[in-house]
Amino acid sequence: MPFYQKRGEIPNKRHIQFRDNSGNLYWEELISREGFSHMYSNVYHIHPPTGVEAVGQFKKKELIATDKTHRHHHIRTANLDSNGDAISSRIPLFFNSDVVISKAHVNESMDSLYRNGNADEVLFIHTGSGKLKSNFGNLAVTPGDYVVIPRGVIWQIDVKEDMQILVTESSTPIETPTRYRNKFGQLLEHSPFSERDIRTPDFVGPVDDSPIDVEVKLHQGIQIYGYQHHPFDLVGWDGYYFPYIFNINDFMPITGKIHQPPPVHQTFQAHGFVICSFVPRLFDYHDESVPAPYAHSNVDSDEIIYYAEGEFMSRKDIESESVSYHPMGLPHGPQPGKIEESLGAKETNELAVMIDTFKPLNMTEAALTVDDEDYPYSWIES
């Protein structure tokens, strides 16, 4: 997220001597993207951050695409057999080389620490609450939060109330939309949200505990490392690189006289996909407007929509935690009768997350186990 933050104690210059009251040097660590050519933060440890005393088990987790016909899908994710902590409960549903989309029903706090070494993560907290603890500080996690965790951040989640989480892992950085930023990276006046809406970590001071395990996510699994010192032993940090939270309810919808296309709902971007937020909003105000969206042929993208709350006026038989998957090459739109039902409606109370990818998605076997096989025929006029 491109704005400067500073926490705790730091020296007045980078890469100079910085000592504690006993004269011991603190350990400086640079956490950066694209080598030394992009965003970064400098963090200051009590102990060396490189102190690995055990290389443990490798847990293989390979994504396998299932054979499938090319059709629309309705995935009822509430029926998934998922439980555990924020990592062990994850069930991958869709993936390609740019993104992995999973669902997690989280009912346990994490015992070990976790670092994704290959992907940025966005955790959409549908329900429940807890606390994200990271090497940059703590963040309270509440319903509706998009928790954005750049790769390399070390973290764990303590659960207060059981959580339903939609997890998006991106092989490239998660960013705010380019068209909503000025040349300095600041969100523009007409952006549907601003830096005021972003929650950044509360610094709690160094954790100087005994050795602890860190699970590091790699391409085909998780490698466990035993660290000699707790990675949260920071006395301070500054920079532009840190986890943050934006709540979907703080998204200010852009409306118009006639139906607005989905890009007005865009919230995040990455190479290969975008994330959009559908929130309660007023409908179009032309005298003859049609609030229901028009039919659309996805010729360059696959569309995933996760339905969180409210009434979804273009769909029938949709429930909370449903996922619709409309692959490229096929038209989709309101089901029969839904256009007429929408006429004259003044507002919607829907809350949903859309992920559009620009490469075809693979489905997993887990997704097919909770798939509504009759969904492709739901546009037949009766």
Summarize this structure briefly:
The chain has helices spanning 338-342, 365-369; strands spanning 5-8, 27-32, 40-45, 52-60, 73-76, 90-95, 99-106, 113-116, 120-134, 137-141, 145-149, 154-170, 212-218, 221-227, 234-239, 244-247, 266-270, 273-278, 281-282, 296-297, 302-309, 322-326, 331-332, 347-348, 351-357, 362-363. By secondary structure, it is mainly beta. The mean pLDDT is 95.
Can you tell me about this structure?
The chain has a domain of about 130 residues: Jelly Rolls (Sandwich). With about 375 residues, the chain is an all-beta fold. A hairpin with a 7-residue loop joins strand 2 and strand 3. The model has no long low-confidence stretch (mean pLDDT about 95). The relative contact order is 0.21. The protein has 2 helices and 26 strands. Strands 4, 6, 7, 8, 9, 10, 11, 12, 13, 14, 16 and 26 form a 12-stranded mixed sheet that branches. Strands 5-22-21-25-18-17 form a 6-stranded antiparallel sheet, with no helix packed on it. The longest helix has 5 residues.
